[in-house]
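A student in our group prepared the protein record below, which I am reviewing. This is what I was given:
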Amino acid sequence: MGKRVAVVLAGCGVYDGSEIHESSAVLVHLSREGAQAEVYAPDVDQMHVVDHVKGQPTQEKRNVLVESARIARGNIKDLAKLDVKGMDALIIPGGFGVAKNLSTWATQGKNCIISKEVEDVLKAFHTAKKPIGLCCISPVLAAKIFPGCELTVGHDTECEKWPYAKTAETMKELGCKHVNKHVTEIHVDVKNKLVTTSAFMCNAPIHDIYDGIGEMVKEVVRLA
């Protein structure tokens, strides 16, 4: 039997949910590594719904679990039912939904609150010494929960290639060690079994982002 990996989603769409390309890349690479992905999402309302053509919030209401089911092709479970004992590893793709629906990072930065369900799951995998893979903005969850951990969200100096580099500075303020890495690279915090890569935090070709996520997935499966 292949390794069983829980993949936690935060909706569907970069601006208000999970980043679709990142989520798909995680699932493809898990399949390639012979791992069995089990997809979960919290059964809660999204913070808001964004029109992805205009980039503006709308008056719609949507549910995180229902929207995440689009990416999972309907094969998804409520995060409340995730049993860490039956899993070998955890991966959380990025997208603004991580900062809006799984936490309040989008509005409060380092003073954010992590959703209790999400925090409980992360702590359970960490306590069980099972690897956790995080990409794009999702490393901020670990930065908030595991003080002193080592992470990457790419680079810490803002430029055209790294438009979200200030995130790294905020994570440092939480007491984390941020390690600069290229988009195709990963950082492994051996002590905490955290594997991180920058993905769309970098303004890079999509195949580079796909490759970086592949390295993250490969290492998570290896550590499991």
In short: The two ends are 13 Å apart (CA to CA). The chain has one domain: 4-223. Residues 118 and 211 are 27 Å apart (CA to CA). The longest strand covers residues 36-41.
